[in-house]
Amino acid sequence: MSRVPLADLISVGFGGVGRDATAVLAVALTMGTMNVYLGGAAKLAAALATEGVLPRWLAAGAPRSVPIRPLVVLAVAGAPLLLGLVAGLGSAEALVRATSALFIAVYVLAIASAIRILAGRARAAAVAALALVATLAVFSGPSLAVPALVAALPLLARRARAVRVGARRPVSDPST
Asked: Structural domain boundaries of the chain?
């Protein structure tokens, strides 16, 4: 038995051609999905930069269909991760678990937000959904440290920025 059960199943019915077709389709579907995710992340980064949440230089060229600067930042940030995988410093399994934990954290936050803004039956449905997704999150185990770290980084950056801006403000003379 291989580590690709779907390909094994397809090969039982269609032989080696089925296995090869499954591999090609898996790559095509993965590449298409990643293309959409990366383009969306670049657009989100440019929009946040336009609003001043991220550094403004990321917003330059934002009217393009997919802004280049955020794509470059994503590539620079992702390259060490991929190089680490190639070097054996991590595993694809750990990366998938971390990514899944990040998705689950986003779902938990989105549903918690829905609970705050909805009323009546919609709120009850959101509460039930939050309970189910939180139960699912438990199965992520130690991988939940990844979304916690990702959430902590911008909070620490915001705090450091506030301290830095506060240090630049002139001290007013109370006697005047």
From this structure: 1-90, 92-167
